[in-house]
Specification:
- This protein is α/β, with parallel strands linked by helices and about 300 residues long.
- It has 13 helices and nine strands.
- Strands 1, 2, 3, 4, 5, 6, 7, 8 and 9 form a nine-stranded mixed beta sheet that branches.
- Helix 9 packs across helix 10.
């Protein structure tokens, strides 16, 4: 049974969304289920908030320096107090079909599902390395996971991305909401707490967005530095769900096979990226020994290090 749209809200953080923002708004406008939508804008100096308002989104402006992946989203949950279900998107995640939001919300027909993530497809112009990452992490078959899957799936059991995910408010608040002090990974932290509290997580393959990143070498290092910081500070994740090294090795094997078929000339680049990811991750795990000024340079979110 479809959810009542009046019980649903959508939230998208924005900052200088650029040329892709028009495509985002067009895809949002085409949704068969289009709940009220809040754009939380971090002082964009382009037309992002004006275009959002013109399209019918409600816009809230916040100081750029106050943005935090978890804290900002949690404040939006508190503001959208009438919504029983909240969908999160990012400004670069383009809804792939007019049924994307409706299909995502359909998983909440199961009262035990606390959160659901959608499929992320590579952008049409994505490079082979970025395309593989999406195909590896977002398969074409749906599933529902519970704490019973942790022994087999490990930390991947809690895989969830706020680039396109929806939450049952009651479940989200029951586990404390989004943490306000994580560098990123607020989605995985909430997903893990839900699993450990008895909620189920769903993955809906027919609810899709186009979302991928052709990161440069330095960006790969910085992203994995932040991941190492998150794991160093949220030690309970790996203690309760398992270490990520096995999943990383599986990714590398899959990537090499993918590139051997589609772009063998990129295998040396992928190997170097793997070394940079590992170095960034290990350095992030050792962040307690680093000066704050250095950490601002190494990670992707310098405003976190206040």
């Amino acid at each position: 049974m479809p959810l009542d749209p009046s019980k649903v809200a959508v939230c998208v953080p924005t900052l200088n969304a650029g040329n892709a923002w028009g495509r985002w708004l067009d895809a949002w406008s085409a949704q068969r289920v289009r709940p009220p939508t809040l754009a939380i804008d971090s002082e964009s100096n382009d037309d992002t908030p004006l275009l959002a308002q013109a399209a019918g989104l409600r816009v809230q402006r916040i100081p750029r320096a106050t943005f935090n992946h978890g804290g900002t989203r949690q404040r939006s949950v508190e503001q959208l107090g009438d919504a029983e279900f909240i969908v999160f998107l990012t400004q670069d995640a383009i809804l792939a079909t007019p049924h994307a939001i409706g299909n995502l919300l359909a998983e909440f027909d199961d009262p035990a599902v606390g959160a659901v993530g959608g499929r992320q497809l590579p952008h049409p112009d994505a490079g082979p390395i970025a395309a593989h990452a999406r195909h590896f992490n977002y398969p074409d078959s749906s599933c529902v996971r519970s704490a019973a899957d942790i022994p087999a799936l490990g930390i991947r059991t809690a895989f969830l991305s706020n680039s396109f995910a929806a939450y049952r408010r009651r479940a989200l608040l029951a586990v404390g909401g989004f943490p306000s002090d994580v560098i990123f990974g607020e989605d995985m932290c909430v997903a893990a707490r839900m699993l450990l509290s008895g909620w189920k997580l769903a993955y809906r393959a027919d609810a899709a967005v186009h979302h991928s990143h052709d990161y440069g070498m330095a960006q790969e290092f910085r992203r994995y530095f932040d991941l190492g910081v998150m794991h160093a500070r949220e030690t309970w994740l790996t203690q309760r769900l398992g270490r990520p090294e096995g999943e990383g090795a599986r990714f590398v094997r899959s990537e090499l096979l993918w590139l051997a078929r589609h772009a063998p000339q990129l295998i040396p680049s992928a190997a170097l990226r793997t070394l940079l990811k590992l170095a960034g991750y290990q350095l992030g795990k050792a962040e307690a020994a680093l000066p704050v000024g250095i950490k601002r340079q190494l990670g992707m979110l310098s405003s976190y290090w206040r």
